[in-house]
Design goal:
Blueprint lengths: L2 H6 L11 H7 L13 H8 L14 H14 L19 H6 L5 H4 L32
Bound molecules: heme C (HEC) (2 copies).
One heme C binds next to helix 1 and helix 6.
InterPro entries: Dihaem_cytochrome-c, Multihaem_cyt_sf
Organism: Zoogloea oleivorans
Protein name: Cytochrome C
């Protein structure tokens, strides 16, 4: 099950197919994060600050930005635990993320094979498919 399912505490088997422009433009430096992991407000803010995106320039042309922004907005998380906009528009700063990962020691995040909590696929090998199931977690040494 994906996060939408986890966050809502319900089974959900269907994964949202990614908008091709989102996959192409937003998965160059990191994975294409599932849209349901942030509320619409966070996606909106993030899409308005792309030239200063976490120290990178992730600018898009106006038409592409509008299309990606609309798509993210309409697939954003609406579940109770996702609705609150986190600091820095980071999934990794949401309450549900911190709670779910509270057993991961600080030193683990810093391992060379992981580097950042934002590097989901380091520990969730099926993350690109939207699969974060706890049974498939592998934490690299
Ligand atoms: C030029 C590289 C680059 C591109 C292109 C890019 N990003 Fe990022 N993004 C980053 C970096 C660097 C970070 C910070 C990663 C970290 O903290 O380890 C980041 C972080 C994020 C985060 C927060 C991750 C967390 O900590 O929860 C989100 C959400 C995000 N990007 C969405 C997007 C979206 C949407 C797009 C497409 C419009 C995009 N990114 C395109 C470089 C990029
Ligand atoms: C250092 C390895 C690591 C990284 C990196 C990581 N996770 Fe996790 N993740 C875990 C562990 C460990 C758990 C706890 C599993 C459990 O509850 O037993 C977990 C749990 C989860 C869960 C709940 C799964 C379930 O079945 O209950 C979700 C959703 C999740 N992570 C999403 C993410 C996302 C999104 C990212 C990137 C933004 C990420 N994780 C990055 C290790 C990691």
């Amino acid at each position: 099950m994906g996060i939408a399912a986890w966050a809502d505490g319900e089974q959900q088997t269907r994964q949202v197919p990614l908008l091709p422009a989102y996959q192409q433009e937003c998965a160059a430096c990191h994975m294409a994060y599932p849209p349901a992991y942030l509320p619409a407000e966070s996606w909106r803010r993030l899409m308005h600050t792309l030239p200063t995106h976490f120290g990178s320039d992730a600018s898009l042309d106006t038409a592409t930005a509008a299309a990606v922004s609309d798509w993210l907005g309409s697939h954003a998380g609406t579940y109770k635990r996702v609705r609150e906009a986190p600091p820095e528009n980071r999934i990794t700063r949401t309450r549900w993320f911190i709670k779910k990962h509270d057993e991961v020691p600080a030193a683990t995040w810093a391992r060379p094979a992981i580097k950042s909590a934002a590097n989901c696929s380091a520990c969730h090998p099926q993350a690109e498919k939207g699969d974060f199931n706890e049974h498939r977690i592998r934490i690299p040494r």
